[in-house]
Specification:
Blueprint: E1 2-5, E2 8-11, E3 14-16, H1 25-37, H2 46-78, E4 81-89, E5 95-102, H3 112-120, E6 126-134, H4 139-146, E7 152-156, H5 167-176, E8 180-185, E9 192-198, E10 202-204, E11 208-218, E12 225-230, E13 233-235, E14 242-246, E15 250-259, E16 271-279, E17 283-287, H6 293-299, E18 303-307, E19 319-323, H7 332-343, E20 348-352, E21 374-376, E22 387-394, H8 411-425, E23 431-437, E24 441-444, E25 452-453, H9 460-465, H10 478-489, E26 495-502, H11 509-521, E27 525-530, H12 537-546, E28 551-552, H13 557-563, H14 567-575, E29 579-583, E30 600-601, E31 607-609, E32 614-619, E33 624-631, E34 634-639, H15 657-668, E35 678-681, E36 684-685, E37 690-695, E38 708-711, E39 714-719, E40 725-729, E41 732-737, H16 750-757, E42 762-764, H17 768-779, E43 781-788, H18 790-818
Parallel strand pairs: 5-6, 5-7, 7-8, 8-42, 10-16, 17-18, 17-19, 19-20, 20-34, 22-23, 22-26, 26-27, 27-28, 36-41
Antiparallel strand pairs: 1-2, 2-3, 3-4, 4-43, 9-11, 11-14, 12-13, 12-15, 15-16, 21-31, 23-24, 23-25, 29-30, 29-32, 32-33, 33-34, 35-37, 37-39, 38-39, 40-41
Helix pairs in contact: 1-2, 2-18, 4-5, 5-16, 10-11
């Protein structure tokens, strides 16, 4: 059976390393045929020529066949035939046990490591090393230092790392070395409960801010209550551990504590300290022809000055908001004033639409439109060009894990369902390709490595549903999947799109960026979908941004459906005058994080984002509602619906108002950028220093601190607290809590997933036989050797040449004897 693999010709396992030499067979055949019919002997008479041809025709056929066969064998030898030979060796099984000896691991049985070493060393060399001690959990560094390559490491730890390199990244790196990481199931022997506060460190004065009290309870510790105090006054907490507060200007102290825990192993993690700085209300210039819901909402948070036109004193404001203002009210002088305010001063502007702006207000092709991250109009989707979509899906070991905690669905199950949902939204004439990556990129269905119309791919759904993760430890190389996607899209006609489904973990992240840069040159857009229990969303967001696409959460199939909209939806949307608001970009500061959005938009202005504008919110018909972009040093947000007076009242509701506040805050940027003196210091924990940065025209002086100049008007010093509580540094308040070694207690649920990525296993600590058998089995190495077969073809060619010479000699001697 002939197979084409990576441009190599293979027959029954035998391949040609330089298969292009075989193409010389064609001119060889043509030459030999010509030699068969052409006579090189000159004759005086035609009768002599015919007689000679008849007499020697048989000899010429024999010699040409022999020489052709000899040349063919030489060509095959030059093409370097070879075969891959697999041999299995028993290897030298050994094991390195890395034991966690840190303080937080004290709630587990710390003797497990030494007991396992004593039992396993009877079967193979077993080394025990301790990689963490005291209040420093350096698990990642410990694995990196002890991974030798082609070896096995058994990590006995709670999986929490508070110093050194990230544990997840180290385990991915060790996969490159072929180091397999294992761990054991652990049950805590002791109980413990810890407390922490999650929330912003800076707020706007008198604006309501919500905080979360996070309580970790291992072993079900019984305690009386949780108390929270702000500046010494008790604050009520709801049933979900949340509390809200409006702060006056200045610094404030928040303390949370657990009351009277019983059988609590660590006492020091029962109190948490947090500082909050309430900043003055930013000053906004709100330009409008009439009052509306947006103005009233902003006045609750900001210091708002309302005017009917732009004033000349813009430097007095942190941001300008233009509400439904036509260009006729913005003379060239005012636009120049705005441009200077944004470009040189680094301030912000929010442009709100309505019935008198954008397409209805003369924005199109105006000087003012050149400042905005949008242009007036409706983008043509060009559906007649068809969509070319390549799915690149993760098929590494990690996708065998649970999609989310407590779920029966695996990550691979979700990948299959996600793809099918998007494919079913496309038209049958649209072209797709699917590549599943691990160490290499595989075609799905097998053999369909090019773009094909959906209707022409047989048993597509069945092929997708039958996808399985290959055995062994193939690794994770996203770049190889992207490279295959790029190759099939390079010459495609129409839109070129790649949808990457991954958790963002990869063994060679730098090569991904290089692939994305190449994709950009071919006009290929990259959309990323974060899947799995532990997603590197920051990586996936950055890749999508670099690839000109968007990042999506697993439940965001609706957003991708909008991007790859079918004909029926297109026809519906042409007639639509309203729509449901959908968050399109989860990577931008305005829409990042837990940002729920539930609003129907009754009307909108028709705008399209420019290349430097980011579409953050759109309707379910892909009509742009919110766009953000930078103009010079300034920041601009366009809200292409109204101020809530007629079209977008639901957008200003309590459940959605957070996105409006963030919109304005992003436009403002640094709230203290114009201050002459400011102290910036973050809360810290015992054992970790924090930087005290001071904006000042003069070198600050504070007892116990030595400030050094790091930039013009910026000084810095280190603060190393020796005990918990609140500290004052140049009148700024710093919260110092217990050592973070005691915050994340219990077993890290992500450890088992990370172990699976490396191809390792999670053992029962009492099942020594299983550990022994696994290490011995995995130590067997499959060695692949390349066996070359050039010389047999060379020798065969030489033998044929000798036969040719021998036959000629016999013929010549026979002719002489006859004469």
């Amino acid at each position: 059976m002939i197979n084409l693999l990576n441009n190599k010709i293979c027959i029954q396992g035998y391949c040609l390393a330089k298969s292009y030499y075989i193409y010389f067979i064609i001119p060889l055949v043509l030459i030999m045929v010509a030699l068969l019919w052409v006579n090189f002997v000159k004759f005086k008479k035609e009768e002599e020529k015919i007689a000679f041809a008849k007499e020697h025709r048989k000899d010429r056929i024999i010699f040409i066949v022999l020489r052709s066969l000899a040349f063919l064998l030489l060509l095959i030898a030059i093409a370097s035939p070879y075969k891959l030979k697999e041999t299995t060796t028993e290897g030298s099984p050994s094991l390195t046990i890395l034991a966690d000896n840190s303080s937080s691991f004290g709630i587990f049985d710390m003797s497990i490591a030494s007991e396992l070493q004593g039992k396993l060393k009877e079967y193979f060399p077993t080394t025990l090393k301790y990689v963490a001690s005291g209040e420093r959990s350096t698990i990642g560094d410990g694995i990196l230092q002890n991974a030798q390559g082609d070896d096995h490491v058994l990590v006995i730890s709670d999986g929490y790392n508070n110093y050194g390199r990230d544990l997840g990244e180290i385990i991915l790196f060790t996969s490159i070395l072929n180091t397999t990481i294992h761990t054991v199931k652990l049950e805590p022997l002791k109980k413990d409960v810890s407390i922490s506060i999650i929330g912003p460190s800076q707020v706007i004065e008198q604006s309501e801010t919500t905080f979360n009290v996070n309580v970790r309870n291992v072993g079900n510790v019984d305690y009386n209550n949780v108390e929270v105090f702000i500046d010494g006054s008790s604050v009520p907490i709801d049933g979900n551990g949340r509390f809200a507060w409006r702060f006056s200007r200045g610094y404030h102290k928040i303390m949370a504590r657990i009351l009277f825990p019983k059988e609590d192993h660590f006492e020091q993690n029962n109190v948490f300290y947090k500082s909050v700085k309430a900043l003055p209300r930013p000053k906004l210039l709100y330009v409008t022809s009439g009052s509306g819901p947006l103005q009233k909402a902003l006045e609750k948070v900001y210091d708002v000055t309302t005017e009917s036109e732009i004033t000349n004193e813009l430097q007095n404001y942190d941001a300008v908001i233009l509400n439904d203002i036509p260009v006729s009210k913005l003379g060239e002088g005012k636009v120049n004033l705005l441009e200077d305010y944004l470009n040189e001063k680094g301030n912000g502007m929010v442009v709100v639409g309505g019935e008198h702006s954008f397409e209805n207000g003369g924005y199109e092709d105006s000087y003012f439109e050149s400042l905005l991250p949008v242009q007036v109009g409706v983008g043509e989707r060009k559906r007649d060009e068809r969509y070319n979509v390549v799915f690149v899906i993760d098929l590494s070991q990690s996708v065998n894990g649970k999609f989310k905690q407590g779920s029966d669905e695996t990550i691979l199950d979700f990948e299959k369902a996600f793809m099918l949902e998007i494919i079913n939204n496309l038209q049958v004439e649209d072209k797709i390709a699917i590549f599943a990556f691990h160490k290499d990129a595989l075609c799905v269905p097998k053999g369909h490595c090019v773009l094909k119309e959906i209707s022409l791919i047989p048993e597509l759904e069945g092929q997708i549903r039958r996808l399985q993760v290959p055995s062994g430890n193939p690794g994770t190389y996203i770049s190889r999947g992207l490279a295959r996607a790029r190759q099939v899209l390079e010459t495609a006609q129409g839109s070129k799109n790649v949808v990457l489904l991954s958790d963002g973990k990869d063994q060679d992240p730098s090569s991904i960026i290089n692939q994305i840069k190449i994709m950009n040159t071919y006009g290929i857009k990259l959309y990323t979908v974060g899947i799995g229990y532990e997603v590197r969303a920051d990586y996936l967001m950055s890749w999508a941004e670099a690839g000109g696409g968007l990042y999506f959460e697993p439940d965001d199939t609706e957003k991708l459906k909008i991007i790859f909209m079918g004909d029926e939806e297109e026809q519906r949307c042409i007639k639509a005058k309203s729509g449901r608001a959908i968050m399109m970009d989860n990577a931008h500061w305005i829409t990042k994080g837990d940002m729920g959005l539930s609003a129907n938009i009754g009307g909108y202005n028709l705008v399209v984002p420019k290349l430097w504008g980011r579409k953050l919110i759109a309707t379910d018909c892909d009509r742009t509602i919110m766009t953000a972009g930078r103009y010079g040093l300034g920041r601009i947000v366009v809200l292409s619906t109204d101020d809530g007076s007629k079209w977008s009242g639901a957008l200003l509701g309590k459940e959605n108002s957070k996105v409006i506040t963030r919109m304005v805050n992003w436009a403002i940027g640094d709230f203290t950028k114009d201050t002459g003196f400011d102290v910036r210091v973050k809360d810290t924990t015992l054992g970790k220093a924090t930087d005290v940065n001071v904006i000042s025209t003069e070198k600050p002086v504070e007892k116990g601190f030595e400030f050094s100049k790091v930039d013009a008007g910026l000084y810095s010093a280190k603060f190393r607290p020796k005990k918990e509580g609140f500290y004052s540094v140049l009148d700024a308040v710093v919260g110092v809590s217990y050592n973070d070694e005691y915050e994340k207690i219990g077993l890290n649920p992500k450890l088992e997933e990370l172990v699976t990525i490396s191809g390792g296993q999670v053992f029962d600590s009492n099942n020594v036989e299983a550990i022994k058998d696994t290490i011995i089995s995995l130590s067997r190495r499959v060695k692949i050797e390349t066996v070359n077969y050039r010389w047999p073809f060379v020798i065969a060619a030489l033998i044929i040449f000798l036969i040719d010479i021998l036959i000629r000699r016999i013929r010549e001697n026979t002719n002489l004897m006859n004469q």
